[in-house]
Design brief:
By secondary structure, this protein is of the alpha/beta class. Helix content is about 50%, strand content about 10%.
């Protein structure tokens, strides 16, 4: 074939004349058809027609001719997001990366694929590669910092190193704002967030904001989310604030100027290094006192964020963070009361099968968590594990997820539930759970509050970082010390002991009375929490 033929195919493709392309290729003899470019074109056509299996077949035919054909590899990686068949393409791309280690595009694709597949260790590895090459954007660096929370393989010093790198790359704009002479209103508290909506952050904030307003403070919202906000929850949340500004389209400089112009005294970051963060705004220092709280359970190590809101439980002894600490007297946050959904009796009494559960994001389910859970299931054969992801799962995802249990647990014992948008229906799924198992090193927070509300205690492993001690703080404040464990062996034995009849009776009674006990604690007492919060910030103003 000469170059004219390929140019002809290319022009037909640009004009989306797919049937003509097929006709031209089919007119070739069998040997002439065997070309990676042609197979790729045919694969793209089939993918466009949503014939995924046929598309994949053509891309693999191209790779049979040249296993390092970059277009085929990229096309296969795009297909994997449709049917979540990640493992094969990740393996092929790793092979390519080994041969061409400096191809940053492939490294980025591998980072994204591994993240989507839930392979935290690999995701961190490839993000670090990007950073080490030096050709990265701030989103790449923020992603790496955020992901380090999901792994116990990295020290606080290494976490701090990347935070410092992020801080160094932010622009110094402090001189633009005369915060000392601007007569900031000490009653004005600004909240900058991507999550002022039906989100965990929104659920924690709802009553707290109302309480601030009742205490004559002026909460001001700077909303960064651009999606659908037309629902009752957002309307209620919006009405709780004194002022609400939708600012997703403002650049960092303009947003900083807006905040400064509103004479905000306390500006609270609710994102840290998570999606949609605007840490540059805090670097600009538009408010005299800047705090990190709630949406990111770790320290940012950004110089201009003056304080991190925490408590004595989440801060290990002798820990010396970069930011100063606002220590809440009980717990670092309190959840708005959830709907009064009935608590059912212990499902084991009816099913005679013990159901462990965890509704944390699958990304939090680390390899070491899987190892411990697998040990529990293998020793307690009359049990199932019910898991729920923040996105829907399909059969392919379930297949690869179950492979992570190396001690070959019967796949029927691991039940993966789809995401449930309706909050009440979500809470009702706890009716099927006898006992929840926390993830580590990244603990659940919202899910732990919800689980306890529904009468289901949570076994947690007390770690060494803020994010690894959230479960400890929640359980301690709920007076559930027996569900706090110090190591993996204790975690396993704590879970296994509930197969005993005496402990089944104990769980039954606890489930019945837990909510009423919780309401006597600080976990859902947002009025007391608000009072404590005000006392603490007044001490630092």
């Amino acid at each position: 074939m000469d170059t004219n033929f390929f140019k002809k195919i290319e022009n037909l493709f640009k004009n989306k004349q797919f049937e003509s392309i097929k006709f031209e290729i089919n007119s070739l003899d069998e040997e002439e058809k065997k070309h990676p470019y042609l197979y790729n074109i045919l694969g793209i056509i089939e993918a466009t027609n949503k014939k995924i299996d046929e598309a994949r077949k053509y891309f693999y035919l191209a790779l049979e001719i040249n296993k390092y054909d970059l277009n085929s590899l990229i096309n296969l990686s795009n297909l994997s997001y449709i049917d979540r068949d990640f493992q094969n393409i990740i393996s092929l791309l790793k092979d390519y990366n080994f041969k061409y280690p400096e191809n940053e595009r492939i490294i980025l694709i591998l980072a994204d694929l591994c993240f989507s597949a839930g392979f935290v260790r690999d995701t961190i590895y490839f993000h670090k590669r990007l950073i080490d090459y030096g050709n990265f954007d701030m989103k790449d660096l923020a992603a790496l910092i955020f992901l380090l929370n999901y792994s116990s393989e990295y020290s606080e010093d290494e976490y701090k190193k990347y935070c410092k790198l992020y801080d160094d790359k932010l622009l110094e704009n402090k001189s633009d704002y005369d915060i000392l002479n601007n007569e900031h209103d000490k009653k004005k508290i600004g909240f900058l967030s991507y999550d002022l909506r039906e989100h965990s952050v929104g659920y924690f904030l709802r009553d707290f904001i109302k309480n601030l307003k009742n205490k004559n403070y002026k909460p001001v919202a700077f909303n960064l989310f651009k999606g659908d906000m037309n629902n009752l929850f957002v309307s209620s949340l919006k009405n709780s604030f004194n002022e609400w500004y939708d600012v997703p389209d403002l650049n960092d400089k303009d947003l900083s100027e807006l905040i400064y112009s509103k004479k905000i005294h306390y500006l609270i970051d609710l994102a840290g290094y998570s999606t949609g963060n605007r840490l540059q705004v805090f670097k600009n220092k538009p408010a005299p006192v800047q705090l990190s709280w709630l949406g990111y359970c770790n320290y940012t190590y950004i110089d201009e964020i003056d304080y991190t809101v925490a408590d004595d439980n989440v801060i290990p002894k002798n820990f010396n963070p970069h930011n100063k600490i606002i220590k809440m007297p009980n717990i670092w946050n309190a959840m708005s009361k959830l709907d009064d959904i009935d608590v059912n009796e212990l499902p084991f009494l009816k099913n005679k099968i013990f159901n462990f559960g965890c509704f944390n994001n699958f990304l939090k389910i680390s390899d070491e968590t899987i190892e411990v859970w697998g040990e529990i299931l293998s020793k307690f054969t009359n049990s199932n594990l019910i898991l729920k992801n923040s996105v829907s799962v399909d059969k392919n995802y379930k297949k690869y997820f179950i492979k992570r249990f190396k001690n070959k647990i019967d796949e029927n014992r691991i039940i993966l539930l789809n995401y449930e948008k309706d909050k009440n229906k979500h809470l009702q799924q706890y009716h099927n759970i006898d006992l929840c198992l926390d993830t580590f090193p990244y603990n659940g927070v919202t899910t732990t509050f919800e689980s306890l509300w529904m009468g289901v205690p949570v076994i947690t492993l007390k770690g060494k970082r803020f994010i690894s001690r959230c479960g400890y703080s929640i359980n301690k404040n709920a007076n559930l010390n027996e569900f706090i464990t110090q190591n993996k062996n204790e975690y396993i034995s704590s879970a296994l002991k509930y197969m005993l009849d005496t402990n089944i009776k104990k769980l039954t009674l606890l489930r019945k009375n837990l909510r009423s006990k919780l309401l006597k604690t600080t976990l859902f007492d947002t009025i007391k929490f608000t009072d404590n919060f005000i006392d603490q910030i007044n001490n630092v103003s």
